[in-house]
Design a protein that fits this description.
heterodimer; A: alpha+beta; 60s Ribosomal Protein L30, Chain: A; 8 helices; B: alpha+beta; Rossmann fold; Neuraminidase; 2 domains; 31 strands
């Protein structure tokens, strides 16, 4: 998945959510000076003839500053709203493992991109485990998972000052089920935006 | 369990009221017939005691306590003290208790006029005779233990109790009877602390549905449960100070994990490990002399064991390796520390000097071991088994490992009573996670909690 399609996904999601919420602050409805490609895709969506996003000719090199000045749903939200959107996807772990696998690396890379874009955000990475194993051990395992996710973000150039970690062990399962599907959802590094 | 108890008390009560003065002898004969299952063997059966020996235990009866004046409140008071005392003494397994139903069939009498022959026929070796009266605002309880064969008193004391703490009154009597008769430190006045989400309050400031977890305390038998923290956060793994007047625990209150010491009977909350988001601290335990805490911290990269004085000075790092070292606890004499480490692969229990230095592995579990808790001659721990966790103990002298729970839900986080004879732990055998108590030989499961999910029990030292 390319970075641009990820971004567009993100923005579409934000838009529809904002619309569904009755829009405290009507975002991006008025077409405005053509922003770089990803934005252009978005502004056409309301009338959406299902045109597949025209293959981006080439990733425009570093045209970052402009879209941020321009109205950006995430930029206008407070942290609670941002966290409801969950723009930073969780990274999942194998049983009793704190290793970031290939899929996890992909997720963390995408998260790093978002953190680069929203460079003022600070985040907490929560380490969670499934219910198996003892409570005390899982506190340590959760800590290792959070640290492991943080380590990967640091390797991608995100500043350590922006990241906190905390372990919740098996105290806060996301899915109360007692099966592998639930357990695999509960073994995660969960991202929370704590300041912007 | 509780309801059985109440039924029993009710039966006992009705038997009492239904009782009509009849020739003592014939009545006693009826007793023996009616309860022959209990009393067929006048020699008494051999019982394994909690000190590990097998012997015939003295059979003790506790007839209804004497009251004067027919005051309903006084009768109720007397009944409460006698019932709780029966439970307390039964708990330590030093006496073979004669049921209250049986005892109720023999008319209560003072120590001076005790019908020894009748009690002998009922199989009693000893009879605990109590009397209760109100003197101003206090409840005066007099207790004597009479030896049936020798017709002498082996224990006698008067207690001045508060009407508001009748259970404590009975607990005190029980502990003193055990101390004087057997030199045994009973645990009837000890308490349990644990974490619970029973109040269903939601954690503030998170998007997900998350319940707060607060610290609760209860008497050793589960009575008098009350919440002692109001922190609106995740508060885990309480541990008692040796004087039982404060607890230490870990809390997520600050957004990261730090350890706290909280006074229970006055205002006082400190953070001796000075945690930050870069130096998080977990699973604290007081040293037996109350001067230091041992805890795990990730401040140097991964979980290591540290101690610090309770005033926050003199931080010492005890372990240093790439493995996670966690769940530390002191030996009863404070000279050593047991902890978990995955330095050889899977989590196992190790012991080392309280100053650090080389550690010795004391478990060889096929899966993981966790949460050591150190009694005088053994360490109890959680052991992962296929499909869950069970409570085990490793005897320090022989290194023999004994499994104490099996197959009834998942069982973890043991904590040992100060006399080493009982273990509280978390079990899922009744559905949600509840605190239960078993004897150190794995017998006599008793349920302590019923509401919410309960974890991380800690048994007080006194």
């Amino acid at each position: 998945m390319s970075r641009s399609s990820l971004l567009s996904l993100l923005l579409v999601g934000s838009l529809s959510m904002a619309a569904a919420c009755g829009g405290k602050k009507p975002p991006v409805t008025t077409p405005t000076p053509p922003p770089p490609t990803p934005q252009a895709i978005v502004s056409t969506t309301p009338t959406r003839p299902p045109d597949p996003p025209a293959p981006v000719p080439e990733p425009p090199p570093i045209m970052v500053p402009e879209p941020e000045v321009f109205s950006d749903p995430l930029a206008s939200m407070d942290t609670d709203e941002i966290n409801r959107q969950a723009p930073l996807a969780p990274v999942f772990f194998g049983y009793d493992s704190d290793e970031v696998d290939a899929e996890g690396q992909r997720v963390l890379t995408a998260n790093a991109d978002i953190l680069t874009k929203y460079s003022s955000w600070t985040i907490t990475i929560e380490g969670h485990s499934d219910e198996r194993g003892t409570a005390e051990y899982n506190l340590a395992l959760g800590e290792r998972r959070a640290m492991s996710a943080m380590g990967y973000l640091l390797s991608l150039g995100i500043s350590a000052e922006r990241i906190r970690t905390v372990s919740y062990g098996k105290e806060f399962p996301f899915d109360p089920g007692q099966n592998e599907a639930a357990w695999s959802r509960n073994r995660r590094g969960h991202f929370v935006v704590t300041a912007k | 369990m509780r309801s059985t108890l109440f039924c029993l008390a009710a039966v006992m009560g009705s038997t009492l009221y239904a009782w009509t003065p009849a020739p003592v002898r014939s009545d006693a004969a009826a007793v023996v017939d009616a309860t022959s299952g209990d009393l067929d063997d006048q020699q008494g059966e051999l019982r394994v005691t909690l000190d590990g020996t097998t012997r015939r235990l003295p059979r003790l009866a506790i007839p209804s306590f004497l009251t004067s004046g027919g005051d309903a409140t006084l009768d109720e008071t007397a009944r409460t003290v006698a019932d709780v005392l029966w439970q307390d003494i039964n708990f330590e397994r030093e006496f073979q208790m004669i049921s209250q139903q049986t005892a109720a069939m023999i008319p209560p009498a003072s120590a001076e006029s005790l019908p020894y022959a009748t009690w002998s026929q009922a199989g009693a070796d000893e009879v605990l005779v109590g009397s209760v009266e109100f003197v101003d605002d206090t409840v005066m309880v007099e207790v004597r233990v009479m030896n049936v064969a020798r017709k002498i008193s082996t224990f006698g004391k008067r207690y001045s109790c508060s009407a508001k703490s009748l259970r404590l009154c009975a607990h005190t009597i029980s502990d003193e009877v055990h101390k004087e008769r057997f030199g045994l430190d009973g645990v009837a006045r000890t308490k349990l602390a644990f974490t619970s989400d029973r109040d269903g309050e939601r954690l503030v400031g998170t998007i997900e549905e998350r319940s707060i977890k607060e610290i609760y305390i209860a008497d050793y038998d589960g009575h008098g449960q009350r919440r002692v923290t109001v922190r609106g956060s995740l508060n885990l793994s309480p541990a008692w100070a040796p004087d039982s007047r404060s607890i230490t625990y870990q809390s997520h209150k600050s957004g990261f994990v730090d350890i706290y010491i909280q006074q229970l009977y006055e205002i006082g909350l400190t953070r001796p490990a000075h945690g930050t988001d870069q130096a998080q601290n977990f699973l604290p335990k007081f040293s037996p002399d109350g001067t230091r805490l041992v805890f795990a911290s990730s401040r140097d990269g991964n979980w290591e064991i540290y101690t610090v004085k309770v005033d926050g000075t003199d931080l010492r790092r005890l372990t240093s390796n790439r493995a996670d070292d966690g769940a530390p606890t002191w030996s009863p004499n404070g000279a050593q520390i047991a902890f978990t480490s995955d330095r050889t692969g899977s989590n196992q229990i190790y012991i080392m000097s309280a100053d650090g230095g080389p550690a010795e592995k004391v478990t060889s579990e096929p899966r993981k071991a966790d949460r050591p808790t150190w009694a005088l001659d053994y360490i109890a721990f959680s052991a992962e088994v296929p499909g869950g966790t069970e409570i085990k103990k490793v005897v320090l002298g022989t290194r023999q490992t004994i499994q104490l729970t099996e197959g009834a839900g998942s069982n973890e986080s043991p904590t040992v009573a100060p006399n080493g004879r009982h273990i509280a732990f978390v079990t899922t055998r009744w559905g949600k996670e509840q605190i239960a108590v078993i004897d150190a030989d794995g017998r006599n499961v008793r349920r302590i909690t019923t509401a919410g999910n309960n974890r991380y029990p800690s048994w007080s030292n006194r």
